[in-house]
Structure formats: structure tokens, C-alpha cells
TrEMBL record:
UniProt GO cellular component terms: cytoplasm; nucleus
Major localization class: cytoplasm
Family of the protein in this entry: Belongs to the PYR/PYL/RCAR abscisic acid intracellular receptor family.
Keyword Hydrolase: no
Designated name of the protein: Abscisic acid receptor PYL4-like
Keyword Mitochondrion recorded: no
SUPFAM superfamilies, per the entry: Bet v1-like
Intracellular or extracellular location(s): Cytoplasm; Nucleus
Record's keyword terms, sorted: Abscisic acid signaling pathway, Cytoplasm, Nucleus, Protein phosphatase inhibitor, Receptor
Gene Ontology molecular function terms on file: abscisic acid binding; protein phosphatase inhibitor activity; signaling receptor activity
Gene from which the chain derives: LOC113711487
InterPro entries, alphabetized: Plant_def-hormone_signal, Polyketide_cyclase/dehydratase, START-like_dom_sf
Length: 175
């Protein structure tokens, strides 16, 4: 796929890395309008709408869906963690850019931050670009750290695609 990122958002997806950090950028094409995808992505209070590992979530500080608020995410059993505290960093409704960071929890992800941008791609299609940066876990290589996080993020993006396409399909039927 040839996909040119607008210059206004490309810096978000080209982070400058410290020696102990690693990063990855993932793409997902979704057969749904950007407005539908954005409604899911921008709902910081309800990540369970499209993140399959999230069991529940509540806002624990600040006003819901305002930059700076904190959420407490409870994840499904069987994972190497049970909860995560996360901060809303960027919510740009005009450019459809969303960013959050992980500030604590009983997991091993340290200094994780992610930025997603949405791009209408002609017709009713949307391209989602997600870039994360994370400290390389102690006793792990960059490749191992990236392999673990990529697996989670790819699954989130695939589920986002399925849920958004479902919603867009239902909206069509009502017209
Ligand atoms: C996201 C991204 C990630 C979430 C990770 C990487 C996590 O929710 C899971 C397992 C962990 O070990 C860490 O966009 C943590 O949510 C599924 C609990 C943070």
C-alpha cells in the first residue's frame, strides 16, 4: 500500500528515540468513514469498545475525555498484568489525532506512549496509523519488547476495524 502521511502529522509518527527506547508504527485500513472510527478511538473512557483485552475502565482523575485525565483499565485474566493507569495526552478532533501514555500499573511496560492518527482514504475508507514508543524492558531485547507490544496493538487495530465496520454497516441499513 502506498500511503502518504500528511506533513502536519508525520512528526507524530517519526519519534526521536533515546538509546533505551524502541518504537513501531502500525497501519490498519478500515472500510468505515473516519467519523465512525474516530468516535471509537476518541472515547478515552471506553477502550473496551474495541480493545479485546480490556475488561473494564473508569476515569480516576480529571474530567472524562479531557486531556490530562487518568483512566484505570482492568485487563482480562491470563495476561501478565491486571491493571494499567493511563493518561490522555492528545485529543485533536479536527485532525483526528489521539495520544495516551501509560503512567503505572502492575505490568512491565515502562514509559509507553502511543499516538494514533486517522486519515480518510477516499470513499468510506479510513487509514489508521499508530506509533508507540516504549522503554526496552529490562532483561529483554528491543526485538522482544517490540514483538510483545506489536502483538497487542495489531490485535487492537484489527478489532477496531471489525467494530467500526459493523457500526458503519448498521448505520447504512438504517438509511
Ligand atoms: C493499548 C496498548 C497496550 C496495552 C497493554 C500495549 C496492556 O493493556 C496489556 C497487557 C500488558 O501486559 C500491559 O493500546 C497492559 O492498550 C493488554 C496491561 C498495559
Amino acid at each position: 500500500m502506498v500511503f502518504q502521511l500528511p506533513t502536519t502529522v508525520s512528526s507524530h509518527h517519526n519519534p526521536v528515540l533515546q538509546p533505551n527506547e524502541c518504537s513501531s508504527t502500525l497501519f490498519q485500513t478500515i472500510a468505515a468513514p473516519a467519523s465512525v472510527v474516530w468516535a471509537l478511538v476518541s472515547d478515552f473512557e471506553n477502550p473496551q469498545r474495541y480493545k479485546p483485552f480490556v475488561r473494564s475502565c473508569r476515569i480516576i482523575d480529571g474530567q472524562a475525555n479531557q486531556v490530562g485525565c487518568l483512566r484505570r483499565v482492568v485487563v482480562a485474566s491470563g495476561l501478565p498484568a491486571s491493571y494499567s493507569i493511563e493518561r490522555l495526552e492528545i485529543l485533536d478532533h479536527d485532525q483526528r489525532i489521539f495520544g495516551f501514555s501509560i503512567v503505572s500499573g502492575d505490568h512491565r511496560l515502562s514509559n509507553y506512549r502511543s499516538i494514533m492518527s486517522l486519515h480518510p482514504n477516499g470513499g468510506d475508507e479510513t487509514v489508521v496509523v499508530e506509533t508507540y514508543v516504549i522503554d526496552v524492558a529490562e532483561a529483554n531485547t528491543k526485538e522482544e519488547t517490540r514483538a510483545f507490544v506489536d502483538t497487542i496493538v495489531k490485535l487492537n487495530l484489527r478489532t477496531l476495524s471489525r467494530v467500526a465496520e459493523d457500526l458503519a454497516g448498521k448505520a447504512q441499513q438504517q438509511v
